[in-house]
Amino acid sequence: MEAKPEEPGPANERPDFHTAIELIGRRWTGVILDQLRSGALRFTELRERIPRITDAMLSQRLKELELAGVVERVVTVARPVEVRYALTGIGSRLGPVLDAVKAWSADWAAHQAGELG
Fold first, then answer.
1. Which of 3, 36, 42, 74 is the most buried (most CB within 10 A)?
2. What is the per-residue pLDDT across 71-81, written as a single tens digit (0 to 9) for each?
């Protein structure tokens, strides 16, 4: 038997849900998180994997995700200094969420194309 979805209550009962949706729903954030699932990456590696993002936007999103505790900035003290970005423990828990959004987006695209009812 399939579990029933939780009945939505007034929006102000779940400010944490709204905040989380706002965080992961910002432009480019999902793509950044998805790229970091494969492991820590340098800024330039992220930029190369997301060709249309600007440096300013990537920097802004990484700072937001770091402040939210979803991404960590890892500095390796060496010559030259190396900075990588990685998902934190709580950030890694977004994996199934991103997978679900990918699956839903494929269904939605098919629906938009008239292939699904």
1. 36
2. 999 999 888 89
